[in-house]
Amino acid sequence: MKVLLVDDDPTALHIASCVLRRIDGADPVAIANPVEALDWLKENNPDLILIDQIMPALDGLEMLERIRSWPHLAEVPVVMITAETSVSLRVAALERGCTDFLTKPIIVPELLVRAQNLLRLRTGQRLLNDQAAMLRVQVDDATALLRQQAQELVTRLAHAAEFRDPETGGHLERMAGYAGLIARGLGIDEDECNQIVQAAPMHDIGKIGIPDAILLKPGRLSGPEMLVMRQHPAIGHDILRGSAHKLIEMAAEIAHAHHEKFDGTGYPRGLSGTAIPLPARIVAVADVFDALTSARAYKPAWSLEEARAFLIANSGSHFDPSCVAAFVAQWSAVVETFQAIPDRLAEAAQVATLQGFLSA
C-alpha cells in the first residue's frame, strides 16, 4: 500500500518513512517538495497521504485543496502534520477534506497507530468499492439477459402471428427496418431506436385472436367482418400489456395504436396527433408503406414511388408529418431495405410459376 509523505524537513521525512515501513505491506514514498509531490499524485493513487502544513511554495492547506480537486484522490485519507494546534487551522483543514491530524514533534507510536488504522480503513474502503463494482457488473449482466429474453419472446410471438397470417412474407423484417430508419431520422437515441425496431414486428400480434374465416379470407371483408378484424389492436394490447419490461410495454403500445390516424379517424380509440404514442406513429408509416409495396392475393404490389406519393399525400391526415418527412429524407436507405429483404410470398409464387413451366 503506497503511503505518500510530503515534508520539506529531510529528518522528519526519514523518521516517518522508517516508522511506516514497520507496517506490513506499507510502501512509503517520501517527497520533500510539495510541487513535485503534486506531480507524482497526478499519475498515482496512494492509500494514505501525510503532508506537513508549513512548507515553501505550497502550504498544507493549499496542497490539500489541490488533492481533493482530483476525483481519483477524493477518497484517499489525508493526515496533516503541524506544530500549530489552533482550532481555526484544524477547522480550515477539515473543510478542505483533511481526515486526521498529527502534532509535531511526531510521537512515533502515535504515527504508527494512526497510519495502521487509516490503512485498515482504506483496505476496507477498497474492498467495498470492489464489491460494488462486482455488483454493478452482475446487475448489468442480469439486465442484458432480461433484455435478451424479452427480445427473444417478442421475436417468437411475432413469428407465431406470422404462422396465422402467411401472407406477411418478409413484411415483419422490412417494416421493422423502415421503423428504425424513421426513428433515427427523428433523432431518437440509439437505445430507443433499437427497442422500436425490436418491438415493431409485434404490431399485428392481436391477429392471433381473429378467426381464420376472416383472417385468411381472400378478397375484401364485409362490414361485420371488418369490425371483427378491427379488434386485433385491442387483442394485441391485451396480450402484451402490464409487462415490467420496457420493450414488451412498447410492443403493447404499438400493437394498440398502430391503426390510429393523425387526424383522429383511426381505430380502435380514435386518438389524434401526439396523443398517439410516437413508436405507434412511426410503425404506422412503416407498416402501410410495406403493405402497399407487397404483393398480396387480393392486390398487386405498388411501386415504391407510388407508395411514397401515398404517404406524402396523407401526411397530416393518416400519418404524422414528421414521421413521413423522416422516412422520405432517407429514400436511398428505404430502397436498400426493400431490396435487401425480399417478399417470401412473392418468391413462393415465382417458384410455383417456374415449377409449372418446367412440368408443362
UniProtKB/TrEMBL annotation:
Domain annotation Response regulatory: ranges: 2-119
4-aspartylphosphate found at: D52
SMART domains: HDc (SM00471), REC (SM00448)
Top-level lineage group: Bacteria
GO MF entry, a single one: phosphoric diester hydrolase activity
Entry annotated with the keyword DNA-binding: no
Alphabetized PROSITE patterns for the sequence: HD_GYP, RESPONSE_REGULATORY
Pfam families: HD_5, Response_reg
GO biological process, one term: phosphorelay signal transduction system
Location of the HD-GYP domain: 146-343
Keywords from the named record: Phosphoprotein
Protein name (database record): Response regulator
Species of the source: Azospirillum doebereinerae
